[in-house]
Amino acid sequence: MDDVLIEKIKNGNDHAFRLLVEKYRNLIFHTVYGVLRNEKDAEDATQEVFLKIYTSLPKYENQGFKTWMTRIAVNHAIDIKRKKVRRKEDQQVEYEESYHTPSTENVEFLVIQKERRHLLRERLKELPANYREVVEDFYIQEKSYQEIAEKTNVKTKTIEVRLYRARQWMKKHWKEDDFS
């Protein structure tokens, strides 16, 4: 069925392309949404992916259409995510380098944020060493269980257990009011 549609599209049949879009719209949307985690971005990316599929069809050589499309979708979503992160970093640098004086409220907010981060770092020093490293890696460095396990040369399950025990330790020794 897909092969027939693909051939018709390659020969300029726009209706065949609409049928293809209808058939795979949900698959592509869910694929890009899985990477982007934002419905609006995923909708835009889905349309962009179908444009890429349309323009890339002449190069397609019957090597598993769903897999081929999904690879295009995933790669496109990853590119979008990278660009967003880069843009965010660039905006942060521009803000930090700009000469305008932030409003009093912003200064206050930034000072409070800085104090909280400092307090958090100080409190993390109280954690037993075997918990401190895993808490910093997971919550501050935002590493996955797998990444931490590879770094520390232990099993993923060990990381899960350490994080669980670290949370129990924090609940027992710290009060929520300590951080507000």
Automatic annotation (TrEMBL):
The organism's place on the tree of life at top rank: Bacteria
Keyword Transcription regulation: yes
Record keywords, A-Z: Sigma factor, Transcription, Transcription regulation
Domain RNA polymerase sigma factor 70 region 4 type per the UniProt entry, residue ranges: 118-170
Gene3D superfamilies in the record: 1.10.1740.10, Winged helix-like DNA-binding domain superfamily/Winged helix DNA-binding domain
Record domain RNA polymerase sigma-70 region: where: 20-86
InterPro entries, alphabetized: RNA_pol_sigma-70-like (IPR039425), RNA_pol_sigma-70_dom (IPR014284), RNA_pol_sigma70_r2 (IPR007627), RNA_pol_sigma70_r4_t2 (IPR013249), RNA_pol_sigma_r2 (IPR013325), RNA_pol_sigma_r3/r4-like (IPR013324), WH-like_DNA-bd_sf (IPR036388)
CDD domains in UniProt: Sigma70_r4
UniProt record similarity statement: Belongs to the sigma-70 factor family. ECF subfamily.
UniProt protein name: RNA polymerase sigma factor SigW
Species assigned in the record: Lederbergia ruris
